[in-house]
Amino acid sequence: MAQTSVSPPPLRPSKANTHKYKVALCQLLVSPDREENIARARSRIEAAADAGAMLIVMPEIWSCPYSLEILASYAEDIDGGVSPSISMLSEVAAARKITIVGGSIPEKASGKVFNTCCVIGPDGQILAKHRKLHLFEIDIPGDIKLKESDTFTGGQEPTVVDTDVGRIGIGICHDIRFPELAMLYRSRGAHLICYPSAFNMSTGELLWDLMQKSRAIDNQLFVATCSPARDPNAESDYMIWGHSSLIGPFGEVLAAAGHEEATVIGEIDLSMILSTRENLPLGMQRRRDLYRWVDVQRRGESASDGARGVEGEDALVSDTVL
Length: 322
Prior knowledge:
Layout: E1 20-27, H1 34-50, E2 53-57, H2 84-96, E3 99-101, E4 105-109, E5 112-120, E6 126-131, E7 137-140, E8 144-147, E9 159-163, E10 166-170, H3 179-187, E11 192-196, H4 201-219, E12 222-226, E13 245-247, E14 253-256, E15 262-269, H5 271-279, H6 282-285, H7 296-303, H8 310-315
Parallel strand pairs: 1-2, 2-3, 10-11, 11-12
Antiparallel strand pairs: 1-15, 3-5, 4-5, 5-6, 7-8, 9-10, 12-13, 13-14
């Protein structure tokens, strides 16, 4: 009996309203006072909007210090509408008609705590919510020991969201270490991956620049990272690296902060992606006869329609989308 070939469901085209825009990375100094952090964030976002930024990216864990011992006490109920941090982001996004990748805050839901990023559109509505997928764990004797799963529960869904400036993939900090996730985001049509992050001094010095550029170069797209500012007087043993950056599809550093509090603004020109992929056509050069990977969720969408077969499985390989 002949087997039926199947392709994954077609992706909607991105609904970007512009092909060139400014993005601001708000590297905030974080204190134990949530209200103070919210006020500081509002001020930075409004100043970035005044400077012409259409997309604002916030840091990982900006509403409170990054300390596993206290994060749960700062957790907010986003789904229940009891989230002063997200409420502020929604108000500013609507007032300034901008898109905000809201960094991350501790979220409480179903008796668990998640490390969660909300993407908010120019109407103030939440477009997407990403819960950190890969929880960080490190044990370097004499240097640092940390296990995020002692506090957080990992998310279950990758996040690609259509915004006024185009299709964006979202990862949080340790998510950047996994190239498969970035490949999935490219395959789903993202032109930019935003990684709110809080790398520490050890991993930051060794890996921060390398990780950002690797994800951008391998997938020929833009990568934006946003970190809290380093606070040398912080009581926490976890010292932040900083150095928020915007990286271009050829690994160009388009904007970068130091370790202090700052807002840096860079420009994203989507034509750079097209020229990079035309000049170096990696998609055409892949050896699909030797290796492949599958977007499990999109394969599931096709399988739910009753499709099966070897040819169909081949057609669901994600890197065939682009």
